[in-house]
Design goal:
The chain is α/β, with parallel strands linked by helices and about 290 residues long. The chain contains 12 helices and 10 strands. The strands form 2 sheets. It has an 8-stranded parallel barrel, surrounded by 5 helices. A two-stranded antiparallel ribbon has the order 4-5. Bound molecules: ribose-5-phosphate.
Length: about 290
Amino acid sequence: MADLDSVKESKNYYLDIPARCQPFYLKGCGALDWGMQNRLSQIFRPESGRTVMLAVDHGYFQGPTSGLERVDVNIVPLAPYADALMLTRGILRSTIPSSYGRGIVMRASGGPSVLRELSNEQIAVDMEDGIRMNVAAMAVQLFIGGEGETQSIYNMTRLVDAGYRAGIPVMGVTAVGKDMARDARYFRLACRMIAELGANFVKTYYVEKDFETVTASCPVPIVMAGGKKLPELDALTMAYNAINQGAAGVDMGRNIFQSDAPEAMIKAVGKVVHELMPPKDAYELFLTLRNEKK
Ligand code: R5P
């Protein structure tokens, strides 16, 4: 029991100051519970409302792809510069230090290897294990228009239901297959479906034409996927354009870890995403940091 000997009588209730009532800063996330909003704040920085996610989950279907042969050597040193890591539970438990204090976005769907039909995925992680690993969000792939469309939507809706029970947000990831379109019309359809069916945020690819219609018609935040390795200036320009056209961040993999200076690249991407640094300036910064490292 508290010591009652020196109880102060005077109290200040600040009657002239109205109670704070702040809206949550992420689009479409205002009605989420405290735990979900808190976890989203571990991914999207409250100061900018944006995120730099580093995607290193490629091994779940590709094995040790170039740049990810040794996650302990190549990726762990980059982790402090990312707002969140997107990865599998296998890499998290085996390789990422448990003292890592930033957001973890756990890939929760998988199944087929690169040798098979990729859309034939199932849920590959229990929400309960996500809770145990203290993740900030779970990620699931959606194959809209692909062979596994219905199964992949079922995977997501099951995960979203479990996510609401646990207070863990779900990121829906738009997949692009060999025969699938890659234009604003397709991504408007895919992103909107994914949001309507319950994802709390969506990862999708950038398209040169009308990307702002993809972000505008999606009621929850969109993060831009990186895609195949581009020259650094082009990747920084793509990130800048996506943010300018309404994306709430990026989830980039190969364009960071396959760069010849990954640390310089992730820092330059961070400047673009959080400070809207023009791409040419960010590229200059990349070159300076790369040269300093040599
Ligand atoms: C994307 O759909 C998967 O999660 C990938 O494994 C990964 O996130 C792709 O990253 P990037 O295309 O930037 O290398």
